[in-house]
Every structure is written in C-alpha cells, then in structure tokens.
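Customer escalation, tier 2.

The customer says the design service returned an amino acid string that "doesn't look like it belongs to this structure." They asked us to rerun it and document both sides in this ticket. The original structure tokens are below, unchanged.
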C-alpha cells in the first residue's frame, strides 16, 4: 500500500468575504506529481498555505505523512519544501547569502547544502551575483533552491512558472522532473499553463469555487477524450455546415480557436479530403489534437465546448 503524504477530509476555510475552501477532500500519495488546476480564487493557494500552516481551517481534518495532531503537523512540515507565490529574496544579497540566511532559519548546519541546491537548479555560476540583478526565471529557480534546502520529501509549488518565458518554463520542468524521477520527491504543483502541467503531472485535481470537483490520473485523461481532426479555414461556420450535409453527420463542431473539429475515430480520411475538395473548402491548416487538459477542465467546470 502506497504511503499517503497528504490527506484532506472535508477541509473548509470561511472568511467574512466568503468561502475559500468548501469541504474539500483529496489524497496525495508518495511519488505523485499532483497537478492542481483551478481559476484564480478557486482555493489553490489557500490549500497550499494550509499545508504550510500559514492558514488554519475552519472545518475538516488534514494529515501530513499520516500525522494529524498539532505538534505532529509542525514536525511533519519540516519534511516539506514550499514555494508559494513569489520567493522572498534579499536583492542586495547573493544567492549564496540568501541560501545561508534561510539555512540558519531552517536550522540547517550542513554548509555544503547551499552548493548542492545551486547545482540542482543550475545557478552554481550565478551564486555570487546579487539577486536583485537576477531575471524572473533565475529568481524562481532560486526560490526552488530555498525550498530544497531541507531535503524535502514533499514539495509544494504555487505557480512556479508564472510569468516565465518558454526557455525558463522548460528549465523549471527539467528541474522538477529530475526531483520527481531521480530523487523520488512528491510534488504538488499549480499552474495556469495547463499544457505545461500536462507534460509533468501524473495525477490532477480540479478545484472550482473551493470544491474539488474531480481527480483523475494521466492515463484516464488520455482515455477521456477523443483525438480530433482540426481544420483551419477562412469561413469555418459555413464550411462546417457544408461538411455536415455532405457527410451526413452532426458531430462536426467549431472549437475556441475557430477550427472545425471532427472525431478522428469516426471519419474516413479519404472521404473527408474528397469532400473538402468537392465542396471547394479552402484548407489553411490540418492537424490532430490529442486529449487536452485545458479542454477537459473547461468542459468539467462548464466553460463551454471546444
């Protein structure tokens, strides 16, 4: 039986302005990379702060590594690394000095750990540089380095790639993949970039208005939706109507990008191409769209079709 790293049973958080968490229940097992998906204000950050002891629940129960008592939770949090919102850095200090400061706060006496975490996040050469001169991506990587100082078994990351350029996003993903696959670190991560989250996570929890509405693993996600043929044309509405009549089918739709979509497993490609030519429909693009985390989420919360 796989050990539980985090378990919530009916967790709630009520503020005067409204409910941030509403009887949320979820489980994260050792070795999971758990993608936490939800819109702004859905309750993601509230739950992460609750794991860190920064926010206290108004209802329900929470366990970390099987521990629930107040004293036991404090001890369990020493096994967790956090990057919630932006890392707090002293801009006039170098990365090494920032890490030294946090090492003293965490009670870490191993002087070699600073060099180790800088190596993990690819900042060894930038260690002496003042962090006020760092790019956003470098600051995020240093924030992860701080979260790794205590050799955590569980890493909690709130939007670690928010605002990064594509190269920075890929670099953060590389670091997290290494931690998960080579060091066995369990990760809870939220991100608005769902296509990137889909490349990293093996399990997903969807939160909406404080409620966990669905949990699903990567294999279930791939089985949950069809691969779609996507056709880009100048007048998709007219073209879709023409194809519906010609092919005698009603499952031809238009997605949010304005492309015509047809389920790949229900159409003969040769017949489709022939119909496009016969109807004189100009094709500007033709591609296959695999099951998509963003589509799944929007369908789940009632955000419309494709």
């Amino acid at each position: 039986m796989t050990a539980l790293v985090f378990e919530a049973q009916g967790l709630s958080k009520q503020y005067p302005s409204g409910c941030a968490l509403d009887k949320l229940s979820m489980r994260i097992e050792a070795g999971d990379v758990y993608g936490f998906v939800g819109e702004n204000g859905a309750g993601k950050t509230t739950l992460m702060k609750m794991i860190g002891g920064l926010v206290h629940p108004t209802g329900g129960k929470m366990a970390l590594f099987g521990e629930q008592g107040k004293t036991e939770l404090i001890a369990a949090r020493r096994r967790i690394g956090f990057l919630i919102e932006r890392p707090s850095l002293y801009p006039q200090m170098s990365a090494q000095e920032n890490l030294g400061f946090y090492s003293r706060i965490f009670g870490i006496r191993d002087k070699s750990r600073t060099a180790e975490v800088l190596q993990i996040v690819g900042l060894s050469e930038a260690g002496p540089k003042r962090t006020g001169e760092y790019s956003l991506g470098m600051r995020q990587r240093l924030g992860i380095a701080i979260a790794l100082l205590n050799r955590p078994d569980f890493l909690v990351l709130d939007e670690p790639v928010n605002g990064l350029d594509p190269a920075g996003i890929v670099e953060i993903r590389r670091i997290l993949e290494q931690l998960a696959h080579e060091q066995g670190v369990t990760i809870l991560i939220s991100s608005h970039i769902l296509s990137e989250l889909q490349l990293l996570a093996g399990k997903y929890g969807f939160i909406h208005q404080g409620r966990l509405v669905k949990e699903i693993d990567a294999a279930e996600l791939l089985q949950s939706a069809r691969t779609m043929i996507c056709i880009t044309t100048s007048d998709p509405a007219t073209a879709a109507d023409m194809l519906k009549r010609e092919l005698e089918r009603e499952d031809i739709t238009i997605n949010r990008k304005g492309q015509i979509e047809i389920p790949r497993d229900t159409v003969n490609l040769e017949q489709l191409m022939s119909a496009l030519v016969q109807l004189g429909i100009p094709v500007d693009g033709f591609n296959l769209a695999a099951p998509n985390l963003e589509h799944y989420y929007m369908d789940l919360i009632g955000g419309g079709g494709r």
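Tier 2 assessment: The sequence is consistent with the input. The mean pLDDT is 90. The chain has two domains: 4-222, 226-290. Sent an explanation to the customer and offered a walkthrough call.
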